Amino acid sequence: MRVAAIDCGTNSIRLLVADLPSGDAPLVDVVREMTIVRLGQGVDRTGRLAPEAIERTRVALASYASTITDLGAERVRMVATSASRDASNADDFRAMVLQTLGSEPEVITGDEEARLSFDGAVRGLRSGEPPYLVVDIGGGSTEFVLGSAGVDAARSVDIGCVRLTERHLHSDPPTADEIAAAEKDIVAAVALARETVPVERAGTLVGLAGSVTTVTALALGLTGYDPAAIHHARITRDQVAAVTDRLLGETREQRAAYPVMHPGRVDVIGAGALVLRVIMDEVGASSVVASEHDILDGIAWSLL
């Protein structure tokens, strides 16, 4: 069965059109696309989605809707996460999606986001020992999920690369005080996650989303963004710390020069790397396994 999954987060909107198999075989990608729309622009400060951010999202979604029709997907599910949960004018966003896609988005809870991310990440994972602690670092929130065959515990906390950048990292490059303030927020958020998720039980840390995969690409020294090389690659805490320090010490122009860097991630990658590094320190992880499969894959599997 051919399905289409759309994940609309704080920083990006992504599409997966895939053929779902029977049995335990992996899904077969037909198309994967990602567009940086920064839907969460200013939400942490204003509590509202900016009209220009909704319009950027509409343009990307219209293109996705055309692709879905052309490829003949039988079922479609669009999930909207952190920014559209938090905004006071979320009704404007939902009306736009209904008009553009023909159905409303599901504005899911942080717990449901965590469960979909875990399912997408763990299917087919052959590296490391369970239980897995899956950490999905988004633009507005980060999900912590612990489990083996299924989810044992999950918690979503309000730290993400866009939220922390807008809240703290204003200089180019960020000052030591700005970095320290962001780090304090991350430490507090990890403590909050610990109230629900027993992270000390984890056998393997698995990291998801663009901040993790970009840090992995930089740690591996890739000369171009290569999903096959990144998927299930393991990098150490020291490698993550070195990349984080480098990114936070560089100007926007220097970060943009990396061949693995998506233009829409240049402004927020320092905060995303810092989230990963602090999480590893707080949970005592010596390494992290990066996964290119995440909530988008979980959404697709949920349509089976």
TrEMBL record:
What GO MF terms are annotated? pyrophosphatase activity
SUPFAM superfamilies per record: Actin-like ATPase domain (SSF53067)
Q: Where is the Ppx/GppA phosphatase N-terminal domain?
A: 27-300
* Name of this chain's protein: Ppx/GppA family phosphatase
Source taxonomy lineage? Bacteria, Bacillati, Actinomycetota, Actinomycetes, Cryptosporangiales
